């Protein structure tokens, strides 16, 4: 069994003007595709061929001899999750039930946004910023390169990609601006709720 590049969950033009179709052409069509191609080549005719993406990630995460497999598998997973973290109708405010959870964890929805933006802006080099559940608690974490929360026993709820290829064509070196736009216009709060198990809307 080989992996295929997953389709974007929306037309590539639908995130404009916040993320351009050109960026998605490169980011999804080139970078994400390369991770898929590399992973398929690396697992071909090995015991990992036929395993799920999550199984491959967890089995290779702490094995330096399989760093190439882990990096490509985790990047396939991370990117697929990132596309679903955004919506053309995203941004705005979370539902009251989700807002209550964010207020309990971070003090306010605005404080969550500021802490999320700060974590992403201060991730040195390439990586990701995440909202995760760990032992029932909401946390903001950042990971370098291909590292992904499942390796650390955390459940990912939403992510923003802070590798330069995610934003450079549209924002050049202005990563904080990209993160602000993600929070204001793109984050899919319903995806967060779905990953938390959903809430009863008030």
Give the topology, please.
Elements: H1 21-43, H2 53-60, H3 67-84, H4 96-106, H5 109-121, E1 127-134, E2 137-144, E3 155-161, H6 168-171, H7 175-186, H8 189-196
Antiparallel strand pairs: 1-2, 1-3
Helix pairs in contact: 1-3, 2-3, 4-5, 5-7
Your description of this structure?
The chain has 202 residues and is mainly α. It folds into two domains: 20-84, Helix Hairpins; 96-196, minor pseudopilin epsh fold (3-Layer(bab) Sandwich). The protein is 48% helix and 11% strand. It has a three-stranded antiparallel sheet with strand order 2-1-3. The longest helix is centred in the first third of the chain and has 23 residues, at 21-43. The protein starts with 20 loop residues before the first helix and ends in a 6-residue tail after the last helix. The model has no long low-confidence stretch (mean pLDDT 96).
Q: Could you name the CATH class of the largest domain?
A: Alpha Beta
The main pleated sheet reads as:
3 strands, antiparallel
CATH architecture call of the largest domain: 3-Layer(bab) Sandwich
The structural domain count equals: 2
Mean pLDDT comes to 96
Strand order of the largest sheet: 2-1-3
Number of strands: 3
- Secondary structure class reads mainly alpha
Distance between the termini: 44 Å
Q: Count of DSSP helices?
A: 8
**N-to-C order of helices and strands:** HHHHHEEEHHH
Write down the overall geometry: globular
Q: Would you tell me which CATH topology of the largest domain applies?
A: minor pseudopilin epsh fold
Rg over alpha carbons: 17 Å
Outline the low-pLDDT stretches.
none
According to CATH, the homologous superfamily of the largest domain is Iron/manganese superoxide dismutase, C-terminal domain
Percentage of residues in helical conformation: 40-55%
* Share of residues in strands: 5-15%
């Amino acid at each position: 069994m080989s992996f295929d590049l997953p389709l974007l969950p929306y037309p590539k033009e639908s995130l404009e003007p916040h993320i351009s179709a050109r960026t998605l052409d490169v980011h999804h069509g080139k970078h994400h595709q390369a991770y898929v191609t590399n992973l398929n080549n690396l697992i071909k005719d090995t015991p990992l061929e036929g395993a799920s993406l999550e199984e491959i990630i967890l089995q290779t995460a702490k094995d330096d001899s399989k760093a190439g497999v882990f990096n490509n598998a985790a990047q396939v997973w991370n990117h697929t999750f990132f596309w679903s973290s955004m919506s053309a109708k995203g941004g705005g405010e979370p539902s009251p039930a989700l807002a209550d959870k964010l207020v309990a964890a971070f003090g306010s929805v605005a404080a969550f946004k500021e802490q999320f933006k700060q974590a992403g802006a201060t991730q040195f080099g390439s990586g990701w910023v995440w909202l995760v559940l760990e032992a029932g608690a909401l946390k903001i974490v950042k990971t370098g390169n291909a590292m992904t929360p499942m390796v650390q026993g955390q459940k990912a709820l939403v992510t923003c990609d802070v590798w330069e290829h995610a934003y450079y064509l549209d924002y050049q070196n202005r990563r904080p601006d990209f993160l602000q736009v993600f929070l204001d216009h793109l984050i899919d709060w319903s995806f967060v709720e779905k990953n938390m198990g959903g809430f009863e809307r008030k």
